[in-house]
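Amino Acid Chain and Its Fold in Token Form
===========================================
Scope: a single protein chain, as residues and as a discrete description of its fold.
Amino acid sequence: labelled as such and written in the usual single-letter residue code.
Position: the record begins directly beneath this header, with no further notes in between.
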Amino acid sequence: MFQKLVSHNDDIRRLIEKGYAVAFDSNCLVVRDIPYLDNERKLRTGAIVTKLVLTDLEHVTQDDHQIFFAGGVPYGLDGNPIPNLGGGPTQIPLSEACADVVVERSFSNKPKATGKFDNFFDKIESYVNIISGPAIELYGATPYTFRSVTSVVTDNIFKVHDTMTSRAEISELSAKFNQEVVAIIGLGGTGAYVLDFMVKTPVREIRGFDRDAYHVHNTFRSPGKLDLVELGKAKADIYQARYEDFRHGLTITPKFIDASCEQDVEGVTFAFVCVDKGSSRAGIFELLLSKSIPFIDVGMGLNRKHGPLGGMLRTTYYSAESGQKTRDMGLAELSEDPENLYRTNIQIGELNALNACLAVIQYKQLRGFYIDGEAAFHHLFNIGDLKITSLSDGE
């Protein structure tokens, strides 16, 4: 990977040929061995870190004109901080391979003529001249050490680089999902969207389950484009093929999950239950509760009494500790009403997507990715007034 990026990006190749100590980590360009002076005019060494934006799997471009710096405040020969660097104290997490590079601050100094750098070579050269100039003059120090770390930290989850996480500086929050094994039971309207969202979440493993075939009606309430050759094939095969090139750790099985499927959920740390039959839900609940696997169950109840559609969307969290208590509250249907022979299962794509959004957001709150102000376990979204009613423990 190191050689691929170097060979396809001329500006980075020029940095290495000039002697900069270049490395790649967490979708960042890292340049070590940058000399500078501290407030006592002593020689110190830091590192420049700048974000990479991958335009494809081989080419990179800049995010902006700023850099991050692992080191103290650089001083000039006059004993004062070097002016016109802007920025301020900040942090950006890197991997263990760059444990020696601890970002402490950011700098912002852009070319006056254009307001941006043409490439990484010009950007690094400009900042090195500013930061290292006094150390080079006083000590004869050099940033050209020809040292490189050619190993690139590979992503064990995604097959493409997750540049959005590094650009947003939320790597430490995303790391909360690294050991998660998530089951998605049911890949109908809402389940298909849950799968789409979770595929792009850095959980270690995803196991999807649905034994049904992919028919025309599924195309109207599932993400992605329609390929006519998919119609009539197993949903499991369709979604496996659709996301196979995006991430590792994805297994979708054409199977109906019930209370007897203990082996299928062995090692699962969280589950989403996305089925529309109460009897199916009852068996799944029994399985997950017996294995102390926390889960979120989703539900949608739409109706048309007089004119426009109305109804509710629901997400309910069943924890490993009090899931049975929540089950006993009867918040989700666990059987079919034999008198309701004409029940209509109305589902609309945007509502399936919203139901999935609410479930995934709730899951990410539970894992500490999003702030959770209420710690509610049960949410009802009313389509009529677009309001959410929540239920917390003790209410």
